[in-house]
Amino acid sequence: MNNENKKEKKPFNKRKLKFGATATIITVFVIAAIVFVNLIAGILTEKKGFKLDLTSQKYFNVSQDTIDYIRNIDKDVDISVMSEKDSLENNKYYKMVIETLAKYEQNSDHINVNYYSITKNPEIINKYSAYYNGDINEGSIIVACGERVKVTTVSSLFDQNYQTGTVEGYKGEQEITSLVMNVTDSNPVKVAFLAAYNNQSIFNPNLTYEIDSFLKLLTKNGYECNTVDILTDELSPDSYDMAVLPAPYSDLTDDCISKLEAFLYNGGDLDKDMIYIADVYQTATPKIDQFLEEWGIKVADNMVIETADEKNLQVNLIKSTYGGQNAKVPAASIADDKYSEGLSNTKLPIAAGYARNIELLFDANVDRNTSAILKTSDTSALYPLNLKTSSGETADLTADSDKDEADNDENSSEDESDNKESSTEAETAAEAETEAETTAFDIASADKQESIVMAMASKSNMDGDTEHKNNVLVMGGASFTDPYITGVSTYNNAEFVINTINKMCGKENAVIIAEKNFESTALDVTTSQVSILRNIVVFGFPLIVIICGIVVFVRRKNK
Predict the structure, then answer these.
(1) Residue 399: pLDDT band with limits 50, 70, 90
(2) How many CA atoms, within 13 angstroms, populate the side-chain half-sphere of residue 350?
């Protein structure tokens, strides 16, 4: 009886043990695999930068152009950030700087990035102060290669709107790549930027942003630029490799022209280059014109416009130019394939806004030759500017590109004594006379032709087996480097201009990185759409969960 009362022992369930052990082993294996994968992922993320950047403009990544460039450098570069890393990580913007610098270190064995507290590590400042005369403060970023040192700041890597207090763009990759290029180039091209004339700006104030953009473009691509007064300063071939004459508003003196000629001649050794930027914001410059004509180039008193609307580019130009926002400008094509070599994307358009037409006076003449670099389509036309000398009235440049008519100013002062009597009366009389004699520009009947807007002239001689060469690059307009155009990756202007100058100077191709703008995308939904979305979230999702629960419950109950 006692045995009967005792509960029968359940037989040992080998099947459950087997399945339980298998489940335990699988669980342990899965946990171990997860830990291992996370460990490997952490190593790859830290050392190789394997991170997924889902931002629209890849704010936390660097471009392939930069990666290709830094992988090829063969000199050690130290990047020292004078801020503790933890303090930067707490700022959502400055964290981009950390991620950007990490990409440089991950993609080059020659780049080392370190973060320092400026109070705890004052020896870092002393290390570089012997080679850098500027200030190094909290937030400075030092990029050094041997004795070549460049310094920027964390805050300067962002474009800020000081009126609204908002951050509008990030140019970290653009700036850091530029500094790396500067310090690793042991023999940079030295540029005399002839932007001053008798301690005043040589160009029209309306071109300030475009000329400044061109200067920055050169500087960021490894050219050492110094502003030079063409009237009062020395232009020595021993000090400079290239001279830039940016759209002088008035003509130069004979002495200034002689300076340019002597610089290029270089005592007979040549090997010096020059860039001349023409523009519609110039008065007549007969002495400069004569200088260029000796090189086989003539800058005509015309502005190139495109008559076929489908061949125009609708671009934004800086507000100081009379083009303004949403301006229609001609698209230029590359006339010489040599200058397209090295471009990362030859399909991007080149905007030739408000450029003067360039004429080649000869293809070759003794030791000189000329070639077209950029030209517009065969449906482009020439709008007459009728430029006058600096002592007379200038042409009216407030032309609207969308209009088919514009006034042509054809009058010059004939009686100098009348001008001396009253400048106000002279100006009023000139305006009245101009108004009476203006002729309409008929875009429909205007001659259509290809127009050159960028050209190169060269002079060469042979010294045994060695060729010595001068180059004069002529650009038809300052708007080629308008900051609204060079600051985005939509157009090829910045890369093409630098690529052309690099080839002219024999310099290796540089890297052009567009700034990354912060854009907020608005969700445009109607009131009815909001109601539908609310009903889906409030009623739809819970209903789906309830139905799934009922289905699972019924299936289990019927097993």
Answers:
(1) very low
(2) 28
Residue 107 · residue 72 · CB < 8 Å:
no
Cα dihedral sign, 319-321-324-328: negative
Strand partners, 81: 115, 141
User: pLDDT tens digit string along 141-174?
Assistant: 999 999 899 999 999 888 776 667 787 778 888 8
Nearest-angstrom CA–CA distance, 487 and 517: 10
Question: What's the token pair of residue 79?
Answer: 């990047």
Chain centre to alpha carbon of residue 374:
19
CA distances from 337 to 208, 333, 340, 346 (A): 31, 10, 5, 10
DSSP structural state of residue 267: G
In sequence order, what are the beta bridge partners of 471? 273, 458
- Report, as an integer, the average pLDDT of 381-395: 72
The DSSP element (H or E) to which 312 belongs, if any, is: strand 312-315
Own/partner contacts of 160-169, CB < 8 Å, gap of 24 or more, are 167/93, 167/518, 168/517, 168/518, 169/515, 169/516, 169/517, 169/518
The helix-helix angle for 208-220 and 172-184 (nearest 10°) equals 60
C-alpha to C-alpha distance for 26 and 427, rounded to whole angstroms: 94
278 neighbors 476 (Cβ within 8 angstroms): yes
Digit-coded pLDDT (tens) for 303-314: 999 999 999 998
Q: What whole-number distance in Å separates Cα of residue 89 and Cα of residue 183? A: 27
**Beta-bridge mates of residue 161:** 166
Burial 366-390 (b: 16+ CB within 10 A, else e): eebbbbbbbbbbeebbbbbbbbbee
The predicted pLDDT at position 343 comes to 85
- CB-CB contact of 264 with 295 (8 Å): no
| pTM of the entire predicted model | 0.71
pLDDT tens-place string over residues 244-285: 999 999 999 999 999 999 999 999 999 999 999 999 999 999
Rounded Cα gap, residues 109 and 289, in angstroms:
51
β-pairing, 242-246 vs 190-197, is parallel
Helix, strand, coil percentages in the chain from 3-state DSSP, rounded to 5: 35, 25, 40
Report d(CA 413, CA 433) in Å as an integer: 11
**For residue 213, what are the β-bridge partners?**
none
Residue 124: closest CA among 101, 149, 99, 103: 149
Cα 113 versus chain centre, distance: 25
Among 45, 46, 116, 48, smallest CA distance to 79 is for 116
pLDDT of residue 44: 53
